[in-house]
Amino acid sequence: MRIVVTGGTGFIGRVLCQRLANAGHAVTVLTRDPEKAKARLYHAVKLAPWQGFRGPTEELSKALGECDVVINLAGSPIADGRWTPATKDLLRKSREGTTTAIVTTLAKLKTRPVLLMSASAIGYYGPRGDEEFAEEASSGDGFLASLCREWEGAACAAERLGVRVVMPRIGVVLGKDGGALRKMLPLYRLGLGGPLGHGKQWMSWIHLDDLVELLMFLMNNAASGPVNATAPHPVTNADFSKNLGRALGKPAFLRTPGFAMKLAFGEMAEELLLTGQRVLPHRAQSLGFHFRFPFIAGALDDILR
Predict the structure, then answer these.
(1) Residue 139 carries which DSSP code?
(2) Considering the domain boundaries, does residue 77 fall inside one?
(3) Which end of the chain has less Cβ packing within 10 Å, N or C?
(4) Number of domains in the chain
C-alpha cells in the first residue's frame, strides 16, 4: 500500500515507518524539514514538504491524492514543561489543527485514501481515580480531555467523506531512545528514582514494539473508531517505579513530593504526572491482537537488557 505519515520523525513514527517499509509498503513522510528528516529516517522512506496546521497546501493535496492510507501522528511534545497559554495553543494547533488541515484537504480530492488513522491519547478519559476505562467510556474533565475530544472530532469529520477512521488512544509509550523512559532513566540509574506524589495514580503503558504492531494490525483490520492502545495490565506509579528499579538493579524509593511537582510544572503536573487513567485495550483484544509484552516487568526487561 501507499502510506503517508505525519509525525514520522518522532519516537513512534521512526520505528513505524521502518516497519512499514520493511513490510513492502511505499511510505512517504510529510515533514517541515526534509534535510533533518532524511538523517533520522530509514533510507527506504520518501519525504515530502508540508506546512502542518497552517492549512491545506498543494504539496499536501498531491501527497494525499496519491496514497491509500494516512497515518497522522503529528503533535507537539506534551510533557516538555509548564502549560503556558502559548504552549496550550501549540498543543491544540499541532493536533486538532493539523488533523483539520488533512481532512479539509481530503474533502477537495476526487480520489481519497481508504483509511485515516489519527492518533489520540488516553488523556481523553480524564483523571478519575481507580475507575477502569474501555473505549465506550465517556470523556473526562480537564485540558487533556478537551484536547483529545477536539483532536478526535477533527478526525471523525473524514467519516462523512467515506474514509474509514481509526483513532488509537495511546498510553505511556515505553521504548529505547525516547519517550517517557528517556527522561526517567538518568535519575533511576543513579539510584535516585521513585514514585511521583503518592504513587497511587495509574499508568496505562505500552511497549513501543506492541504499539507499532497494533497500528499495523489496525491498518489491515476493518475496525473503526477509538481503540485503546495500552497494555492489558496497567500499573500504579509506585509499582512502575519498583519494577524500573528492579530492572536496573537500583533502589527506587525516593518519592518526589506532589507539591514540588506542582510548583515546578503547574497544571501539567496535576493532569499528566500526579493523576492517571486505568485504561484497558478491550477492542484490540476482541479483534484478536496479541500483546508480546502484557506485563510491565517483561516490557522493561526487554527494553533495558
Answers:
(1) P
(2) yes
(3) C
(4) 1
Counting beta carbons within 10 angstroms of the beta carbon of residue 295, is it exposed (0 to 12), middle (13 to 18) or buried (19 or more)? Answer: middle
pTM (2 d.p.): 0.95
Q: Which three cell numbers stand for residue 233?
A: 495490565
Domain carrying residue 65: 2-172+206-230
Contact predicate 37/28, CB 8 Å = no
DSSP letter, residue 173: E
In a domain, 278, yes or no: no
User: Which residues touch 111 (CB under 8 Å, ≥6 apart)?
Assistant: 65
Q: Give domain status of residue 252, yes or no.
A: no
Q: Is residue 181 part of a domain?
A: no
pLDDT digits (tens, 9 = 90+) for 55-111: 557 888 999 999 999 999 999 999 988 999 999 999 999 999 999 999 999 999 999
The contacts of residue 272 (CB under 8 Å, 6+ apart) are 78, 79, 123, 144
Instruction: Please give the backbone phi and psi of residue 243, each rounded to the nearest 5 degrees, phi first.
Output: -70, -35
Helix, strand or coil, per DSSP, at residue 270: helix
Question: What is the Cα–Cα distance from 139 to 62, expressed in whole angstroms?
Answer: 35
Find where cell 513512534 sits: 12
Please calculate the CA angle 169-276-132 and round it to the nearest 5 degrees. Answer: 70
- The pLDDT score that the predictor gives to residue 32 is 84
Please give the radius of gyration of the chain, using alpha carbons only, rounded to the nearest integer. Answer: 19
Contact 6, 98 (CB under 8 A): yes
Give yes or no for residue 23 having a pLDDT over 70. Answer: yes
- CATH number for the domain that contains residue 42: 3.40.50.720
Furthest C-alpha separation in the chain: 59
By the 10 Å C-beta count (0-12 exposed, 13-18 middle, 19+ buried), 58 is classed as exposed
Which residues 6+ apart lie within 8 Å of 173 measured at CB?
11, 12, 179, 180, 205, 206, 208, 211
* Mean pLDDT over each residue of the chain, to the nearest integer: 94
